[in-house]
């Protein structure tokens, strides 16, 4: 018995040391399925004791999807490269001759959600309903979505998860949600959009792909060389390596297949991850000098709602939980506008990010922000003294929970994939949250730093009026935002 335990401990230690717990699916950047990010800043994501969340906002990428048509063609090319050749595979690659691209209904799959993606969205809806309890059963709950099908579908499955409690399955008319859908990736909605950078002529994400492309040339040839030792009669090249690494995350979210995950080493995955980090950091994140200005109007609108400040002309009051669904490249600009994830924890001069070797001090990880369903959340906390050792109860009254009483103070904290990310110069509150009034000042200062949407985007001389604020949360009729309304029955 004792010997058995020792053997078990030895095995576990060996597993830990050999890195068997390394999971490529947590290092696959935008191809990673959703997972909670590690708490890099050391703050637990649990609501701080004595606080309750009384308002929250989430902006998320759509859930896991099939490849876009362009990447799908890459899969098909790889398949035919294998099929058209007679070759011998050994070691980890013996599965290649049996591999078939996991798409079995081509008109309906590439670009659209996988079931895994639908389930991720449903689960998040169910989870947030329970976590916050900010709306009550049967309420007409409204969410906002960019217009592409996979985005609207994510909003729909989120809503169905959110509405899934109680016995409403048969009475969907009394348990409905609403989706406000905004045009996707158009150039006339200006800032009043969930895809604002496409209205910004000065915006370009090319730096990201140039830098990630440069970095890929430093490691992909070595991977091809290593894998080719396991093949006779077939030579993989850098393009094949890129497609095969993508196939880890994508195959997993389609049918759970991890075979491509198993053929690369830990270092090869970390290089692959870093290439994505460069792409998003410089493409749409804090490394792009224009991206903060494109997302700032959104941040400002959310800051006002967290402050209970409605515009004078508001015709709609958003729910206390504000859900918005969009694309990967619209999430990093929010980090840029907020001034987060743009430094290292230990060395603020760890930038710029190198294109020849991974920067180990960075805080920006694509796998932790633009993976499928990746999200940035704002929570308004209301906090006061925690419950003491002894609590009095007066018959006939329900005691207010700490945070809900008269003397409570309000704070805001930001979570990225459920990991707390403190604001660089505003983190004196519980759990390093920022006092609500200071948050407003912080946001205003960020606005001055990142600059005005119209001016930075080069729209100053435009002959048509380009909306420069986010109006759509409080004005569904907002002409600039071009909203369409769709009701979704609960499940
Ligand atoms: C493989 O063969 C097919 C059918 O003959 C052909 O259409 C395709 O171009 C070939 N592809 C590659 C990558 O060799
Ligand atoms: C739900 O709210 C939306 C937005 O205000 C509205 O258009 C819709 O009619 C409402 N539906 C129900 C069933 O109340
Ligand atoms: C749902 O509807 C079906 C068919 O009309 C009925 O048999 C069932 O009892 C209903 N269930 C509930 C929970 O109302
Ligand atoms: C938007 O794009 C259309 C079509 O490419 C173009 O004609 C129009 O000038 C653009 N509008 C703005 C405001 O850039
Ligand atoms: C990110 O940090 C760099 C280096 O300090 C700075 O030049 C840049 O303006 C910052 N970006 C944002 C969006 O704050
Ligand atoms: C936030 O709310 C406070 C109190 O109502 C108000 O004085 C302040 O002007 C608001 N700030 C913003 C930026 O809306
Ligand atoms: C706007 O037009 C004026 C006058 O033609 C020019 O001087 C200025 O540079 C233009 N500004 C922008 C942002 O294009
Ligand atoms: C944006 O574009 C305008 C005109 O196209 C240019 O004058 C201006 O310098 C640009 N602004 C930034 C911040 O790049
Ligand atoms: C409401 O007011 C804001 C700020 O003045 C303005 O930008 C927006 O266009 C107005 N919305 C409507 C629907 O009138």
Question: What would a concise description of this structure say?
Answer:
It contains eleven helices and eleven strands. The protein has 491 residues and is α/β, with parallel strands linked by helices.
Structural features, described:
The model is unreliable at 1-19 (pLDDT under 50). The strands form two sheets. Strands 1, 3, 4, 6, 7, 8, 9, 10 and 11 form a nine-stranded mixed β-sheet that branches. A two-stranded antiparallel sheet has the order 2-5. Helices cover 33% and strands 12% of the residues. It is globular, with a radius of gyration of 24 Å. The chain contains eleven helices and eleven strands. With 491 residues, it is α/β, with parallel strands linked by helices. The protein binds 2-acetamido-2-deoxy-beta-D-glucopyranose (NAG) (9 copies). It comes from Irpex rosettiformis. This is Phosphoglycerate mutase-like protein.
How are the SSEs placed, and which strands pair?
Elements lengths: L1 H16 L33 E11 L7 H15 L4 E2 L25 H18 L8 E6 L2 H14 L13 E7 L23 H23 L2 E2 L5 H18 L10 H18 L7 H16 L14 E6 L5 H7 L36 E9 L25 E8 L2 E2 L13 E2 H15 L2 H4 L27 E6 L2
Features:
single chain, 491 residues, alpha/beta, nine-stranded mixed beta sheet, two-stranded antiparallel sheet, 11 strands, 33% helix, disordered N terminus, binds 2-acetamido-2-deoxy-beta-D-glucopyranose, Phosphoglycerate mutase-like protein
């Amino acid at each position: 018995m004792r010997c058995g335990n020792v053997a078990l401990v030895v095995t576990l230690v060996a597993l830990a040391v050999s890195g068997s717990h390394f999971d490529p699916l947590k290092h696959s950047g935008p191809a990673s399925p959703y997972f909670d990010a590690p708490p890099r800043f050391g703050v637990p994501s649990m609501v701080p004791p004595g606080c309750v969340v009384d308002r929250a906002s989430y902006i998320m990428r759509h859930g896991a999807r099939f490849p876009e048509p362009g990447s799908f063609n890459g899969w098909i090319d790889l398949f035919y490269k294998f099929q058209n050749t007679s070759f011998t595979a050994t070691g980890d690659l013996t599965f290649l001759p049996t591999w078939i691209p996991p798409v079995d209904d081509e008109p309906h799959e590439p670009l659209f959600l996988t079931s895994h993606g639908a389930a991720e969205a449903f689960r998040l809806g169910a989870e947030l309903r329970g976590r916050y309890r900010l709306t009550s059963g049967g309420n007409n709950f409204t969410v906002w979505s960019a217009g592409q099908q996979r985005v609207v579908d994510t909003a729909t499955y989120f809503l169905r998860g959110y509405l899934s409690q109680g016995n409403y399955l048969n009475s969907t008319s009394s348990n409905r949600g609403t989706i406000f859908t905004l045009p996707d990736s158009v150039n006339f909605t200006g800032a009043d959009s969930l895809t604002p950078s496409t209205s910004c002529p000065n915006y370009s994400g090319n730096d990201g792909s140039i830098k990630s492309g440069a970095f890929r040339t430093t490691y992909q040839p070595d991977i091809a060389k290593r894998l080719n030792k396991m093949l006779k009669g077939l030579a993989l090249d850098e393009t094949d390596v890129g497609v095969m690494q993508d196939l880890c995350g994508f195959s997993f979210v389609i049918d759970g297949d991890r075979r491509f995950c198993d053929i690369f080493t830990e270092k090869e995955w970390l290089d692959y991850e870093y290439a994505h980090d460069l792409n998003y950091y410089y493409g749409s994140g804090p490394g792009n000098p224009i991206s903060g200005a494109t997302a700032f109007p959104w941040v400002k609108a959310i800051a006002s709602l967290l402050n209970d400040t409605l515009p004078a002309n508001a015709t709609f009051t958003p729910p206390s939980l504000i859900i918005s669904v969009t694309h990967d490249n619209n999430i990093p600009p929010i980090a840029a506008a907020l001034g987060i994830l743009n430094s290292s924890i230990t060395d603020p001069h760890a930038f710029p990010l190198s294109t020849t070797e991974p920067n180990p001090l960075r805080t920006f990880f694509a796998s932790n922000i633009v993976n499928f369903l990746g999200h940035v959340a704002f929570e308004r906390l209301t906090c006061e003294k925690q419950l003491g050792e002894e609590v009095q109860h007066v018959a006939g009254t329900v005691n207010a929970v700490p945070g809900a009483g008269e003397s409570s103070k309000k704070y805001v904290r930001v979570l990225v994939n459920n990991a707390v990310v403190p604001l660089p110069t505003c983190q004196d509150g519980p759990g390093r949250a920022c006092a609500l009034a200071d948050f407003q000042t912080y946001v205003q200062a960020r606005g001055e730093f990142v600059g005005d949407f119209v001016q930075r985007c080069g729209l100053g001389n435009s002959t048509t009026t380009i909306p420069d604020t986010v109006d759509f949360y409080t004005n569904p009729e907002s002409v600039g935002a071009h909203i369409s309304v769709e009701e979704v029955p609960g499940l």
